[in-house]
Amino acid sequence: MFRPRGVPMFTALVLLPLLAGCPADPECTEDRDCATRGPDIVCVDELCVQAPAQDAGLTDAGQADAGEGDAGVDAGQSDAGHADAGTDAGQADAGADGGTTVPEASLRITEINPDLSQDLIELVAVTGGTLGGISLLELTNADFSFTFPQGYTVEAGAVLVLHLGGDCTDAPGAPASCGQTAPFTAKAWDFSLPGSLSYSGKVFELLAADGSPVDGVPFVRASGAMPNETVTAVQRLQADRVWDATPCIHNLDTGLAKDRYCRNIAVNWSELNTDSSVMRIVGTTPLATPGVATQWSTPLPSRWGTY
């Protein structure tokens, strides 16, 4: 029977180091091969090993924190620059919190008498706010205009009285500073200015501080000649959308007073005396704009400073 012969000892000793140098199968070729070993095990040189702790060099103290990340974005544009110092300390704090802009008041012409030694015009604030820059113009022949000075703020419902030829103006914040001797009143804001109004026809327009039209009203007497500028002035109010858009009638051919000077749409302020005035108090919405003649009363006992 054949019996294989054993490997000689010398040959075994020679082959042993060669067998030991043969590479074994790798544990891994990528990190997911080590997933079963734990969450922080990664593949390095085909072996699964513990992942090293995150280096505090480049990421923390280097480019990200002290460099472009913190000092650049945080202390620069985001924190101290545009975002924080700009929006927070600037617009948000000083604007909305500490310096809120007060809106402009919206006024309406509400009472008038041009037949007094001191002609009076009353206005009412339908919304509160500042008065500075708001102006009242007479558009025919009175050569009258008035612009409210800066520094005055009124609440909704406040009454303001213009005294043409008056000698006292209330101080800002003190509507009673001109006293209570008629025609001044402790309840209303009193403003005195030079000038006077003739008792014929007059057309007034109220402008906001930026010049935009707010209100207007034309006044005429029932007969007689009115200023030559009356028709043009009324048409201006209509173009500015502060007065009745019904076409103005000015027809000299009929020979009738009612067909002249826009009497068909203007307020008739005939029959005034020193104790009366015409007032914008008629109807459910007397202060609505565009204004119309039917919002105005016939002459009634004056009530200056009260609306």
UniProtKB/TrEMBL annotation:
UniProt feature coiled coil, ranges: none
Domain named TP-1001-like C-terminal: residues: 105-246
Name of the protein described by the UniProt record: TP-1001-like C-terminal domain-containing protein
A Pfam family it matches: TP_1001_2nd
Disordered: region residues: 59-101
Alphabetized PROSITE patterns for the sequence: PROKAR_LIPOPROTEIN
Biased amino acid composition, Low complexity: 60-101
Keyword terms: Signal
Protein origin, superkingdom: Bacteria
Signal peptide: 1-20
